[in-house]
Design goal:
This protein has 112 residues and is an alpha/beta fold. The protein contains 4 helices and 4 strands. 29% of the residues are buried.
Length: 112
């Protein structure tokens, strides 16, 4: 069984997020675990929609499971945000692929 994952904020969930989930389901796996920030997002801002509604929207759009990224990671800079999500996924030992959004196409990969 192949399991994909996405680390996200979904603040708010939009058509690009829905497209990403559907593309993963169509091309790789029906099983997608989302690591999502809670009621506070990067830079300590409150989310515009609470975490339970955002999680439901993600599941309604094809996510299999939504887990909350702890506050210490979700309110930090992008590197710490990603590090927290990757640590959770690595600890599970079941995820085959990681997907994420990027504000620009400059991606530097690090081993965690």
């Amino acid at each position: 069984m192949k399991i994909a994952s996405i680390i996200a904020e979904y603040n708010p969930f939009h058509n690009g997020h829905a497209y990403q989930i559907q593309k993963i389901k169509n091309e790789y796996s029906d099983y997608i675990i989302i690591i999502m920030s809670g009621n506070f997002v990067q830079r300590g801002e409150p989310a515009i929609i609470n975490k339970f509604k955002r999680a439901k929207i993600a599941v309604d759009n094809g996510a299999s499971l939504v887990l909350e990224l702890p506050l210490i990671y979700s309110t930090s800079n992008a590197e710490i945000f990603a590090h927290g999500g990757i640590n959770i996924l690595n600890s599970m030992g079941i995820v085959d692929r990681l997907y994420f959004g990027s504000e620009d196409n400059s991606i530097i990969l690090k081993n965690y």
